[in-house]
Amino acid sequence: MKVTLKDIAAELGVSHATISLALNNSPKVAKATREKVLAKAKEMGYQVSPYVSALMAARRRGRDLDQAPVIALVTPNRSADYWKERHHIRRFIESCTETAGGLGIQTKLFWIGEEGMTARRMNEVFFHRGIRGAVLMTHGRWGERMDHAWSDLATVTYGARELRPNTDWVGADFYGNMELVLNELVAHKYTKVGFTMDKPFHYQHHNRWLSAYLKERYYGGIASMEPWLDAQPDFEGFKKWFQKWTPEVIVCVQPATIIEWLQQLGLRVPQDVSVVTIGTAERGGKLSGIVENTYTCGKLALQLLVDRIHRGDFGTYADPYHITVKGEWNPGETLKRSHVAE
Q: Three-class SS of residue 86?
């Protein structure tokens, strides 16, 4: 069984950080402690990963990334460049790249939707290229291709779908974001708040959006109204639900579709019905609702990944971390203001 920094730390009763610094000959650690750590590492058969050594050397060199180790950023979208059209994914990738650069690491994009590509094959590509860390963006057409026990690789996932088997995961605080939306609407004196969502989103998030909505519906300040959950949403289904419940405001995932359907019903947004997005708003943009903090998600994903690499944690994790990042409210133009109290 491979010896890790955590094992050495446990043997010596010191922190993981101390072991890491000592093995990298840091002056921050006393000479006697460094010698003790090196001796124990040798006794336990610890072998320094060439990848980690290269990573540390790259960090010491600063911004010269020509020979720096590579972190893979894997996308599952409908095409290799589709991420460029999606504001949040683009921000996430930019954050990953900037954070990696500050640590002396390169990032490279890989598309798992390529014809004939599988997780097993991509895993082999990474191994032969000496890539030992990957950020897996799991929400997209080819997301299920990533369900794989990635061997000899440190991984962290990001997106609406959690990887199977489990790994470190960073994503939006879906429950907290729904609470933020509903608190905002209650403060604006809305009571008839509808919630529309198709089942794929509903189940991928382990009911977090729905749970927060139902909690507020039963115990908070909004009227009891059945959410519209349809595995194959269409206009006729929406029309039937809307005419039954006549919400004042609709919270949804894909506002463009809901706004189009409301217009087909002869209704104006926001004059007749307000529409709020649960996660696709942009700061200063026209859509009212939640702006997901994808930049912070990217930063945290890289930091988690580098920490795993330093510790020599590769493959399936026994103790995966799940980190959620709360979004912020964007006032936008799709929420009617007349409900605001004086």
A: coil
